[in-house]
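ok trying this again, last paste got cut off
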Amino acid sequence: MLSAGLSNVSSLSFKRSNGVTAEGMRAFANLIKLLNLDLEGCLKIHGGLIHLKDLKKLESLNLRYCNCIADSDIKYLAGSSIVCVFSSDIAYSISLSDTNDCRNIN
């Protein structure tokens, strides 16, 4: 398993990787010290954000150019510690308790 020897990892980048899939994102769930995750241009992750919902230390998530992400994916981030989600060419600040409180921070 990917995460077995990576428990202390705090930052990961899979920019423009075709190898990251929604099912494969299950491996991220055990990276409890993860602060930053860059999935820019990963086009197969629709449905995978649910695996990030319990990452209490995750602060930054780059989803720029992840055109497969839907509103139904983002709802799993409600209540998380993620401060900033980058999606498309716009950055949004997400309230820690309510995804209805997304604000454009261009």
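PB: full thing came through this time. Residues 7-104 form a domain with the Leucine-rich repeat, LRR (right-handed beta-alpha superhelix) fold (CATH 3.80.10.10).
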